[in-house]
Amino acid sequence: MRARRSCLAVPGSNPRFIEKAQGLAADEVFLDLEDAVAPAAKEQARENVVAALRDGDWSRKTIVVRINDVTTQWAYRDVVDVVEGAGDRLDCLLLPKVEDASHVVWLDMLLTQIEKALGLTRRIGIEAQIESARGLVNVDAIAASSDRLETLVFGPADFMASIGMKTLVVGEQPPGYGEGDAYHYILMRILMAARANDLQAIDGPYLQIKDVDGFRRVARRAAALGFDGKWVLHPSQVEAGNEVFSPSQEDYEHAELILDAYEYYTTVERRGAAMLGNEMIDEASRKMALVVAAKGRAAGLARERSFERPTMGC
Length: 314
Description:
Strand order of the largest sheet: 1-2-3-4-5-6-7-8
Radius of gyration: 21 Å
Mean pLDDT: 93
Number of helices: 12
Low-confidence stretches: none
């Protein structure tokens, strides 16, 4: 599982931003050929992206390119030029405005053809962005459409427009909604489809880039549900994203202790349930601990405590 706590959007038409992104602590960087690039700049942006993939230092990052959606005249050339030019440096392609499983199938098939033609041994993954009512209604089929899929991504701005939500502030609650969360059903729908197909789930951007406290508040909502990360649009949001979507050191240590203790009690003492301090642990505890431990390891956390086996006879 790739770390995707913070997924930094970088316009493919801006070489300065592309260069700066290489030194930031974002888990994922996606070079954008879609909404962040004006129609007249699409071709030059492709060239910029290929050059950056080939010549840049993207070590320890997940590298993604967001192509244009399948209904546009740019999509197929985005795929061909980027993969033929730098497919061996690429982790995933991000497909926006996915409304039907056939969109993902198209990209999967085109990638397969290019990889075979080039003899690429590095298989390129797919991220699918859900940005409309139709996409959400079809999200289960989309999530199951290709074994290249790695994650589902929520695209809030286009989604809000597609359902006629009464607000212009992306990520905040619409005026008049009252208490509760207008996005809860949307996020849970995407999360269920993702988890049912062993995919990651990524929340969309928070456009008030100077309001880091607001970003943290909205990011915590998604993290509490179980999302793996969030898009970031500015370097100031990267640290906050990494923090919010990482388990605390205490929770990470606890998860690792549960895993060690459960392994000991089930293999050495052959018990299906046991006590870890004042806490009873069993198979369900192990499953929950696996999730937290995996996120902690992906975040680079290190253990400071180890499980002490009980003294025989005590």
